[in-house]
What does this fold into?
Amino acid sequence: MNRKKIMLLIIPAIIILIVSGCFCFFVLTHFCQTASPDQKHLTSYNLFNRVVTTKHTQTDTQTLELLSNCAPWQSPRFSWSPNSRYLAISYTDADHCRRIHMADFVDHKSFSVRENDLLSACGRATPIEGCISLHFVEWLDNCHALIKFSWNNDKSSNTVSGWFTWQVATGQILELHTGAA
It folds into this structure.
C-alpha cells in the first residue's frame, strides 16, 4: 500500500476517535439533567467530579453548586417541588445508604433531612449502628414531601421501616408511620 491510501484510512479513523472521545467526555461530565417546572433552573450532575450544579436559564448564572457524597457508581435523582422552590436530591452514598439533600431556591440555602429528628420522632434516644436509608417518594404539595426510611435494628435482625410527611421549610416531621419489615 502506498502512503496516500494509508492516510485515507487513518485520517477518518482518527476523526472518529476524537469525536467519540468528546462525546464520551460530555456524557460522563453531564450524566443527568433536569429542568425546574417553571423552566427557570437547569440542574445537572457531573459524574466526573461528582458535583451538582444548578444554573438560572435566563441569566445563565450559577445558582447552586453542591459537592455530592454520591457514590461514584451512582447518579442522584432530582425531584422539583411543583412551585420550583425546592429541589430534592436523592442519592446513594459510599456506605450504600440512601440520602436526601434539599435546596431552597428562594432562601438560597441547602440542607439535609436530619436523622436525629427522625430517631426522636420514632422514640429512639440513642443513635443507631449503621445508617438510616431515606427514600424520597414524592411531593405532596409545594412544601410537603413523602419520605420512606429504613434501618437495621441493633438488637435484632429486624429492619425498622416506615414513612413520614416532611414539612420542608421547617424540617418538621408531621406524620410518621413505622413498622418492622
Observations:
- DSSP finds two helices and twelve strands in the chain.
- The helical segments are 3-29, 115-121.
- The CA atoms of residues 61 and 121 lie 40 Å apart.
- Confidence is low (pLDDT under 50) at residues 22-29.
